[in-house]
Amino acid sequence: MYPNIIRGIEDSGVMVPRGTRKLKALRTLRYVHLAWGTAIIKEIKGLTGLQKLGVVGINKKNGPGFCSSISSLSHLESLSVRSGDGLNGCLDGMSTAPENLQSLKLSGSLEKLPEWIKGLQNLVKLKLELSKLSGNLETMQVLGNLPNLSILRLWDEWLRIDVLQFQSGLFRRLTVLDLFYSRMEIKLVEFEEESMPNLELLTLSLGDTEIAFSGLELLQSIKEVRLSVHSCLFGTPKSSKNGGNEKMGKTLYEYMKREEE
């Protein structure tokens, strides 16, 4: 960990050995740290059989090269990109979206969604973590028009939203909506008529704050609504003689389980 800190590199993620590009049958590669240098990106570009890829440490310097390498991965179905410094300007160099991409996870702040996301016609699962785009109507319209999006997870913190609105006619195929908001203020979650007609599961985890709902009765296919309150990332159980540690352990387990989905 300490050499990474000296180099200014996060302590998570691994360096790809030289020659990895020769593994043409490799299907899954996680989690590669891009901040080790441009040679890593060349190794990734050669893995033309990749179906699942996870990277960390992307920034504006290595972003263009990474976007270029993705264009050669025609079989890519799952992509996870994480940056501790934010994703603004890091993914704009991708002119076209991976045609077969079904699962996408972006972790890091964004001013707006990259344009290529609009072209993800086969995307089924999307997770935006710490993007600061929750409640952005333009973002919701883009996501709501993705024709095959079935699972949407929005995880954010340090935001204040008056109305988190899901407009009519959007998210036609969505079946699961997972909202995990820590240290946020949301006054109202609103579902307009004919929004999310196929939604079956709604999960909302919030910090200790008041919230109101509007339009829950309009969700035609809803089967389950899960609401939970936490006072920090993994929850802080109330002090008790029995069950305190068990509750903390369960909360942590549920978080880690959802993180891997």
TrEMBL record:
Domain of life (superkingdom): Eukaryota
Protein's UniProt name: Disease resistance R13L4/SHOC-2-like LRR domain-containing protein
Keyword list, A-Z: Repeat
Pfam families per the UniProt record, alphabetical: LRR_14
InterPro entries (alphabetical): LRR_dom_sf, LRR_R13L4/SHOC2-like
Domain Disease resistance R13L4/SHOC-2-like LRR: from-to ranges: 11-230
